Amino acid sequence: MVSTKTPAQLVFNGLLNENPIFRLALSMCPAVAISTTVMNGLMLGVAVLFVQVCSSCTIALIKDYIHPRIRIPTYTLTIATWVTVIDLVLSAYAPVAYKAMGIFIKLIVAFAIITMRLEVFASKNTVGKSFWDGIGMGLGFMFGMVTLGFFRELLGMGTLLGHDVLGFRPLLFFALPLAGFFCVGFMMAVFNYVELVFNRMKRKAG
Amino acid sequence: MRDILRITIGLTISCLIAALIMGSVFTVTDKAKKHNEQMDMQNTMLGLLGYSKSHPAPSDLALYPVYRYIIDEEGTKYLGYLVPVKKSEKQTYELLLIDLAGKLKRKYGLDLSPESAVQESERSGAMKKIVKPPNSFTYADSFIVATLGTKRLAYLLPGEFPGFKTFIKVMLALDPSFTIKGLDILEQEEDPGLGGEIVQDYFKNQFIDKSYEKMKTLKVVKKPLPEQYRRYLERGELKKGTLTSKQVEEIRKKYEDADIYALTGATISSQSVTSGIKGMVKKFAYRARRLDQVIDRQHIPVSF
Fold first, then answer.
1. ipTM over the 0.95 cut-off
2. Distance CA B91, CA B62 (A)
3. I need a surface site. Which of A30, B194, B264, B272 has the fewest CB within 10 A?
4. Around A48, how many Cα atoms within 13 Å sit in the side-chain half-sphere?
5. Which residue from A69, A92, A172 is facing B33, i.e. has the nearest CB?
6. How crowded is residue B240: how many other Cβ atoms within 10 Å of its Cβ?
7. pTM of the model
8. How far apart are CA A127 and CA B226, in angstroms?
9. Same domain, B202 and B246
10. Residues B141, B173: one domain?
11. Does residue B260 register a pLDDT over 70?
12. Left (φ > 0), alpha (ψ -120 to 50) or beta: where does A126 sit?
């Protein structure tokens, strides 16, 4: 299925319609574990954006040479290569950034969202389209992580980006991993409700 | 059959390409990475001794690493300390073989410069020339002696112990009487927001100024951290002037013998750090005293 969407539509698609966390419910494990603070969420989001864009472009470039039976191992290999390259380059030439992002980058190899995007999109579309799809998915993931981080940091620790906002810790529970599931659930509800309202409006207009 | 062949060849080629890319990136970046790691370590060590960019280290500050090996000679175990020595104005290393009762068995001179001793491979190369099979050696750990002029300033000891989830890597600074002067958490994977708080000043600085005697009985208490103490512990982060130097001195006195206040929601992490550091200090003090005895008795010209 070749996509006929424009770049803007592709980015928008990743952010809202097919948001990796809230609509596709992929990569929940890291989403729940890492989104304890806004900063953590942002860092993982940036790392995923990088790897997603690089892997999408690579797969779109070599898609005609991959034997269909071994496409999944090839995707994993591509992601692992990019993760290693980014990890090594950052640690060598940007030690400050590496100190903040190092542990997040190594996590990415096993992310479902990236493999899934390569299978569904990059292996069937051109490099340009895959690039924009990668950007959209990466931004969507980042948006999800930062939103979750915002609520969990504010409610769990009373801080935002490390600055004390509330002056007290309202509910320590929100810093725990299981609260991540609650937050994801609530956000999914919000997304579904927005879709419902949007469709109703569309029907009325139509 | 043809499919199988194509799959095999395809997979092999993609693996080879990936290996080639990763390998070449590794060769290009390895040197810079190692350099960064060493600089990082250096900065951590200087930071623990209280030096920073705004307060640089004096020129007569020197750091001497000492490496500890376990040596198996004819079925008996010995401790092998690789200590830096000064011989006719040149820095080299000497291996001291100490038996379990604390007596020097033998010593060997090693052809090893301080620069190459940092590399694990160079060190074992030099060791292999001395400890020949069937005798064997295994690397145990290392510590660093910091000197200021001719005076011993501090011991820096890297170490690790199990935390709530994985191992916690730390670096500890002790003064010559084994009182803790600084603690830095280098690597940890505790729960962010809970056990992860062990890296925060208000937890790790509680260990500072705990004496060797106090460390023997140090406990973790589940009580809220007093606000005044918290401000004292975090004074490095806050703007200067919130606490006067007289107040700082007062609070230091007051909490000198206090136990460790546990982190909210992370009692196990707090306890593992406390017991881990207790163990490190206890073992190190014992070993350092033994080593010093040998060095004094045998008049070994150590650099520190």
1. no
2. 13
3. B264
4. 34
5. A92
6. 8
7. 0.74
8. 59
9. yes
10. no
11. yes
12. beta
